[in-house]
Specification:
The chain has helices at 7-71, 98-102, 104-127, 142-151, 155-171, 184-199, 218-222, 228-231, 330-342, 347-351, 370-380, and strands at residues 75-78, 85-86, 89-90, 134-140, 175-179, 206-209, 234-237, 252-254, 313-314, 320-321, 428-429. By secondary structure, it is an alpha/beta fold. Strands 5-4-1-6-7-8 form a 6-stranded parallel sheet, sandwiched between helices. Strands 10-9-11 form a 3-stranded antiparallel sheet, with no helix packed on it. The protein has a two-stranded antiparallel ribbon with strand order 2-3. β9 (313-314) and β10 (320-321) form a beta hairpin. The radius of gyration is 39 Å and the shape is elongated. It starts with 6 loop residues before the first helix and ends in a 10-residue tail after the last strand.
């Protein structure tokens, strides 16, 4: 028979059992605490990854949207250089319509909108897209074109040209009318470099070039005529006269007849009726600059008709100085102001002896004379000539100097600010072999 366990031994067993249970529970609690800490860290990492993934996803979507937009920037359009010189010979390419140019800034804006609409309509047959971003670059020699207009008697176009260019550029965010300066090769270089930039750009869907009048661009295009993929991305703007070497090229021709001139500019001044007008010889100045001691005023003014073509006076630096027409009376200025408020008078009719434009928008009546004619001529001189003091056109009615010279109060805001330092003393008369000059 087993001996009974004493109470002390039983108490010891209970104590050992309690210690084992305590140690076990403590181990469980420690493991649970460790797991909770690890879980907290894991949840923090998970939240961070979720946030990062969402941010990355938003960026991806934004990039995809931008990429889609740039891929739809379809057309890099390079219209022709409207004016340039090469070896002294005028090289006039296809120009904007005369009626648009005569409207100045308004006409420039209208030309830009028409061109945009025409290009959008043209590119739709490629993939039906109307969301392509359209970039337009026009390269020109503004001074050369101004001189050409002046020489052939398109004086209204000449005076409105810069305003037209500004209106064209300002009306559309991706339209630029760039003055490439003197020399045909300058515009050629820019057009070729722009072409090279866009032809290898996969984001550019189509290129429209206004160069088909000039065979000099054929070698550039010839390299792509057998590559159907690239050739399908190139179109040519229909010229007035296409270069013969373009006949063998596979590129499509786009025609925008409502925007550009349908014929070349004339080489000489237009005709009156069916007879060529013979320009009268240069007139003597109203007042001899070498002997005049005081300016004529009021009733002493005697105006010849027409005032232009007239003599061209130069200072000792061979800069043009406008002929002194005297000072019209206050009464004549008020009479002219009252008249032009209701009738915008034609410069050609009043100052050049006749208007050749059958659709002239300006009034030809009444015929000004005396002080009113002088006042009208002085008003025309408020618009600066694009050729400045280098202009040699006997028919130019615009201003070639600031009337106030160094004493001009407008300073940097004056339209003639670049001419402020010119000597206004008439030194000698310009002589040439033609009565009209060439600008």
């Amino acid at each position: 028979m087993a001996e009974p366990i004493s109470a002390l031994d039983q108490l010891g067993k209970f104590k050992q059992s309690d210690e084992e249970r305590f140690n076990f529970m403590k181990e469980l609690v420690d493991k649970n605490t460790t797991l909770l800490d690890e879980l907290k860290i894991a949840k923090g990492d998970l939240n961070h990854e979720i946030t990062s993934r969402r941010m990355l996803q938003d960026k991806v979507q934004d990039v995809e949207a931008k990429l889609k937009g740039t891929q739809e920037s379809a057309v890099s359009q390079h219209p022709p250089d409207p004016g340039g010189h090469e070896s002294g010979t005028e090289q006039i390419r296809r120009l904007f319509d005369d009626n648009l140019i005569r409207q100045g800034a308004v006409g420039g804006s209208e030309a830009a909108h028409r061109l945009l609409d025409n290009i959008k309509h043209y590119v739709q047959h490629y993939d039906g897209s109307t969301t392509w971003k359209i970039l337009v670059r026009v390269y020109t020699n503004l001074e050369g074109l101004f001189t050409k207009y002046t020489y052939i008697g398109f004086n209204e176009e000449a005076s409105c040209l810069r305003h037209f260019v500004a209106g064209f550029t300002q009306s559309q965010p991706f339209f630029d009318y760039v003055d490439a300066g003197f020399g045909k090769e300058r515009a050629d270089h820019k057009i070729k470099e722009q072409f090279d930039l866009f032809i290898d750009n996969i984001q550019c869907k189509h290129i429209l070039l206004g160069i088909a009048h000039d065979n000099g661009y054929v070698p550039t295009l010839d390299a792509f005529k057998n590559d159907a993929t690239i050739a399908s991305r190139i179109s040519l703007l229909k010229p007035i006269t296409k270069g013969r070497e373009y006949n063998g090229l596979p590129f499509e021709i786009a025609s925008f007849e409502s925007i550009f001139r349908k014929e070349e500019l004339p080489h000489d001044r237009p005709m009156y009726g069916k007879q060529t007008r013979t320009l009268p010889p240069p007139r003597q100045p109203l007042f001899s600059p070498l002997s005049m001691r005081k300016r004529a005023t009021g009733k002493d003014l005697v105006a010849r008709r027409p005032l232009y073509p007239g003599p061209i006076w130069l200072n000792k630096d061979n800069q043009r100085v406008d002929e002194d027409l005297g000072d019209p009376s206050e009464k004549s200025l008020m009479n002219l102001d009252s008249l032009v408020r209701s009738n915008k008078l034609c410069n050609d009719q009043q100052l050049r002896g006749g208007c050749t434009n059958p659709s002239c928008r300006y009034s030809h009546e009444p015929a000004l004379d005396g002080e009113e004619l002088i006042a009208f001529a002085l008003t025309a001189r408020r618009t600066p000539c694009g050729g400045g003091s280098r202009c040699r056109s006997r028919l130019c009615v615009l201003g070639h100097q600031c009337p106030f010279g160094l004493s001009c109060a407008r300073r940097s805001t004056c339209y003639f600010k670049k001419l402020h330092t010119n000597d206004l003393t008439m030194d000698h008369e310009y002589e040439d072999t033609e009565t009209n000059g060439t600008g």
